[in-house]
Known about the structure:
By secondary structure, chain A is mostly helical. Chain A is 72% helix and 1% strand. Chain A has helices spanning 18-36, 42-61, 78-96, 110-127, 132-151, 156-187, 192-201, 207-225, 233-240, 243-249, 252-269, 274-296, 301-322, 325-352, 372-375, 377-391, 397-411, 415-441, 458-472, 474-491, and strands at 68-69, 74-75. By secondary structure, chain B is mainly α. Helices cover 74% and strands 3% of the residues of chain B.
Amino acid sequence: MIEPISINIEDLNIPSLLPMMVAIVGALLILCIDLATKNLHKSLYVMLTILVLLIDLGTVMGYGGTTRGFFDVMFIDGISILAQVIIIVASGLFVLLALSAQRFHEYKYPEFFALFLFMVAGFQFMVSSDNLILIFVGLETASLALYVLIAMHNRDRSTEAAIKYFTMGAVAASFFAFGSMVFYALTGSVELGQISSHLVATNFENYPLILLGVVFILGALSFKLSLVPFHTWAPDVYDGASAALAGYISVVPKIAAFVVALRFFEIFVSVNNQWIELILYIIIVLTMTIPNMAALLQKDVKRMLAYSSISHAGFVMAAILVGTTQATEGLFLYWILFAFTNLGAFGMLWMHRNKQKDGYSSDHRFEKFSGLVKSSPVGAALMGLFLLSLAGIPPFSVFWGKMFLIGATINAGYIILAVIMVLNSAIAAYYYIKLIVYMYLKEPETDTSSLSMANSSSSVKTLIGITAFMTLASVLFIDPLLDIISTYVQISGY
Amino acid sequence: MDHILSILIFFPAVAAVIGFLVDKGAIRTYAITVTAIEFILSCYLWINFENTTVTMQFTEFIPLISQYGISYNLGIDGISLFLVLMTTFMTMISVIGMSEKRDLKHLLLTVLFLEMTMVGVFLALDAIVFYVFWELSLIPMLYIIGAWGGQKRVYAAVKFFIYTFTGSLIMLVAMLYLGYVYFQSTGNWSFNLLDWNMLQLPIDMQLWLFVAFFIGFAVKVPMVPFHTWLPYAHGQAPTIGSVILAAILLKMGTYGFVRYSLPLFPDASVTLMIPIAILAIIAIIYTAMIAYAQEDIKQVIAYSSISHMGVIILGIFALNVEGIGGALFLMISHGIVSGGLFILVGVLYDRRHTKMMNQFGGIAKVMPMYATVFGIMLMASIGLPLTIGFVGEFLALLGFFAVSPLLTGLAGTTIILGAVYMLVLYKKTFFGPLTNPLNEKLKDLNGRELTALIPLVCLVIYLGVHPKPILQPVDNSVKQLVQVMYLKAIDPKSKETIANANSIKEIK
């Protein structure tokens, strides 16, 4: 006979669920509005989404309860709050890109925004738990919503991308479930904290089985983080998704997956488990290098940026391998700066999107950007700024993240890894410079001046202005930003 | 003026931003005025500079990233003072002498941004701030070469960028490592060069760090075998790009050696003294021979630059007061002379749109003033006594003589080889019969070109006869530098080598 569960409502710590509830209720609200009145302009839904995200942000920042909540499955520590803030802010920036000049299919449906909010809630669950089951649920909620969002762009490529992403994602999900099962079999728990203490207490008995579990979980997370060799979906999906969504995919799902990876690999890195560190080391080096090489060969800017963001993810994975507090701070610093820059870069592509056929085989051929400085100097200057920042040229934002992360790698004694990291930065500089060369140093091929910037509107311009400001003036707020990050990271003990 | 150094750095940048609003027709006057004000500001700095003080002057300090010990920290001493003066002076001259017509506004504003980064490199005392300016200087140069260059400009620009960027990233790793070492030994984070100068590092660590810094600096100088980007960059760059590249950007590398490598890694400097000297001598002889084989006047001067940079490196790694002081003087003189020569080649190119020697011959008859100015610059480049080129070259070689008379003998061929390729160039271009009818109507130097060139000629002769105004402040700071090296060296052998290198008078 099962004992009746008696639990005090106070112990449930409902406020820990509040941020996600806000997002979910907001999504339902949007669906209800759609039921009542049809064919409302997209700006209404965009602004509603922004409001919901603002409330969400407020509840996250104002959270003052204990770290544990809701049958101990919720785990709201410093890095959870930090990651949630990044997720919400980046989501807000992304939604504003919907206010572009041209009308696109997906924004006609309010479901787009509802799904979007469900996805945000999913990511928030992912980062605020150390229970493998809840992480799994969060991951799947977010991923399923994301597949649909990609498909809603309503072109052949988009459907293809969504199906590809879905198929691969389903495999990854099964990997995750299988990995969790192995750990449950080994330790009798699905909570990372207990798994950790059990493994340490038994001195990593059954090592082959542990490795098997790690490999499965690593496979699942690698898929989400697009680490080599699980990265093959990424360029096609970025290609199929709209530029704005591609920018989003390169930032937000990854920070969520980074947090999970951080919590999971902490178990092994903190005790210097050699095999697992070796596997991570190899994956990191491959993830930095191979997509970098591939990016050199791309003829489409969006695919190039896709490969480059895979490489950036590999770069940041190094922080998880290094595992010191400074490295974890570096991870968040890097990703915050990268989020702004990368959203800016994809936002610039989004502005150049137009629905007419322009004679190029894909939407964002390099040739389309040739001589851009003549037709729209400000656009070219901003794009150049984002590219230089991504290449890690000081004093633009990503440089500081790179520097901090490389510094952390060196301080932990991984000198060779640091050298590989900087050499990859040098390779990466080539393909970023290539686009700058097209924009600044080549003559326009055809008269594309009427077509470029076709999708820009004042709100999108403002948004890109904000990201450009963050990229340009980063040196001024690195210090306070680091203070905040280190407070949050240190209270959660990573 | 309390923040004179910050003003010096950011005045051109602010002027460049404001300059976007200036009309195209007036932009040249605007740029000349801005660079002239910048030069006057740097003269003000010179007047207020105290020659007797050996420590950093006019220092400024603002913490940037306090957690990680990065601060905006500026200062100037005898080593950097004249490089800053040369930077502001040569930028002004190159803007005055410029004849470019296409997209003049973009070009001039880019030059102003470039001036900011160059001055910043010479004034920064924090390694990361130094690195920021160092990297930032690549972008304006990339644009200048890539947008206003010759046929293969994009290739040349990208090659220049990738080479230097890769080299300096390796230097960044070394800088971050050094910051960490400082943290380990003192418990505080700092990237301040003056703090770092107090560190005594174990010899094997010094060697690795020295090599990492060396890669960053050697690409910039450029030293053989990292020099292949330079002929392309010079060959394709517009005149103003070549002038700034040769006169100022290359000096950033040699300045780096003096400012970072020597005081931070004295033992490694002593250990690697001879290998680096050999590289420098290969550069001197090999590139001089290549220069002789060139058909293109600009390429001759480009290769002669590499050759002269070899002499500068040799002087620096003499590790004595004469050698380093001479190398610093040679940096200034090479800046003035090679800048002047590139302007002169530009003058010819503007008129005939070719730089090939076989297109010319006998043009001394139609362009007498041009031939005279070219002749004076050429003599200074060879190192004729009583010109500016002689003083530095002589002192650098004299310095290295204390280390190794044999190697100095080999390096001394620079004067002979330099005379060979330069005089051959002069003979082919200016003397002989005027065969090509196109050359008969060449116009002599006009007012604008004379305005740019006359100050250079005056400096070449004045400082050649009377180098003391530069040598004395340089000497004081270099003595301090050598003292620091001597005190910091761990290995008694290195101490002995430094002491021996500096006691040239007693040996006699």
